[in-house]
Queue: 2 jobs
Job 1
Amino acid sequence: MLEGKIVLLGISGGIAAYKSAELARLLVKEGCTVQVVMTEAACEFISPLTFKTLTGRPVYCSLFEKSHSSATAHIDLAREPHLALIAPATANIIGKIRAGIADDLLSTVLMAMDRGRSPVIFSPSMNSTMFSSPAVRDNIKVLRQRGYLVVEPGEGFLACGEVGEGRMVEPPQLVTYLKSIIAREEGDYTGLTVLVTAGPTREPLDPVRYFGNLSSGKMGYALARAASERGARVILISGPTALDPPEKVHLSLVSSAREMYHAVMEEYPNVDIVIKTAAVADYRPEECFPEKVKKGKEIEVKLVRNPDILKELGLNKKGQFLVGFAAETEDLLDNANKKMKEKNLDMVVANDLGVEGAGFATDTNVVHVLYRDGFVEEFPIMDKYQLSHLILDRIISLRSS
Ligand code: CTP
């Protein structure tokens, strides 16, 4: 998958620069052309000669090098790569790209890259206090909003002696990540139809009132967008939300659980993958009053069960890959596992509503992904769009295994 790809490996000045030698070696082994660009500070940690030897190519460190074949070398370097990976990415290079400062070769090349064509990925590495500082967090957030990819660093023993978050992701994992990025760029969902349900349902009590829930629809809309960008034909069946639908997605708006049930059942025979992020109301008022209920004496509302859409899909599975979401406030993994079995699912994305950054109305989520073979993968807090791609990566590799 990486064979024949041109990768710009940007190395900024952190101690993890020693790991980049292994990274360069692995990328060359995968068949990539690796063009290394180093900052001056990076050259203090590891010699450009190491990378020249590993990649078989000149290594560039300065805007004004005599070895540049043209005066616009930074533009040439920016045009060629299929993607750029900055590893390690220090707080400095992250801050510079966020702020638009291009004062050395690496920052200039990165700013000159057309990210519509070549993704730019940062793999941060720094002291955990620096990593959690408001400035760095904010810079990373803005970079992501602008379409840059930022890999979450690992936790562990740091060079400064502290233990915490900030370790550069290990080279083999970064190579795996690059493969998934290339797969996304090449449209790995082309030819597949993905049905996503999103948002809450509203269960009417009278013409102006309903029972509902706090779901914002953000997770489902992010998944629909990500699947569509990867080439899928996407059908988004959504309860009421305040969100704009992603481009190129076929949107079907519903309100109640029963409307969602009918819309989903109609599409089900013709889809390959179903991702049910919708927070479907399990109950509805037995009776919907025809006129607005006037206040007066106490009323009792009897709630009756709604169809369990996902369970019905699981019972009638004909090759479709089914992904359920489980939002829990207790016994997260046990409850999510039960849902996987009861609804005959292939994967469950479980989130603990009690964890900060997880849940309904947030832009981020914190999830565990459960697989049929019992394996459980835990993801750190991340924004819902980024998480969507990781979920789609897992689905596509399970479907093809
Ligand atoms: N779901 C569904 N139809 C329902 C209820 C839920 O299709 N009537 C789907 C949701 O879209 C989600 C999964 O089932 O993908 C789990 O939903 P959740 O609300 O977490 O659990 P429930 O199955 O409703 O069980 P409980 O409310 O008892 O936790």
Job 2
Amino acid sequence: MIEFRSVFYAFDDVPVLGELSLTIDDGEFVLLAGANGSGKTTLLRHCNGLLTPDTGQVLVDGTPVGDDLIAARSSVGMVFQHPRDQFVSATVGADVAFGPENLGLERTEIDRRVEAALEAVNMAGRDDERIDALSGGEQSRVAIAGALAMEPTHLVLDEPFTGLDEPARRSVLARLEALSADGTGVLLATHDLRDVLGLADRVIAMRDGQVAVDGPPEDAREELEGLEVRVPDR
Ligand code: ADP
């Protein structure tokens, strides 16, 4: 469970999150919507301690993130907007192994996790391939595998479809759908809900650092109007 309790955060004295409260349960597929600049990335970066609230608290599974960063980063796997920025190794397998290696796990456990994570994103057996030779969609899937290798309860993705062509979008979407069906919580930030609205249990939309909409997708559609969010045609 991820819990925001009255979280206030400002960049250079400009408030970005304004006393925001929110609870995300395990297993939920949540869309975090909102126009560019509405604070989605800032909110996500609080989920695993990349940013810390000026006031208020963020808790993962009941523990304040800052009290146990390793636990928070194990429970909440983060996939950034530009996967290229998050790779640390030249090859697929080495990159996916990086997180579990940092947890100090046994080699056999690391290998098991890498294999399972690559399997989950349809990249099984491609450990030795160079990341820079992969397509954009494959790179996105490797980034997701890197997060999955931590065996997170929640997978958090920031605009994961940016720069992907249609087949790649479909492939990443299919992987997210399968992961969600298997019980992994998904928190996906996007300003474009067209492909994803049907997958979600809940839509949270932000405006000016506040939650403007929070509810099931079928109820959210009309409320999303005026928030500069793209919704699917009826
Ligand atoms: P979104 O993800 O919804 O596009 P962000 O969380 O990236 O929104 O940004 C919210 C606001 O915070 C914007 O006004 C943005 O300009 C500002 N902001 C984001 N990152 C920084 C930063 N590193 N320094 C100063 N302002 C920032």
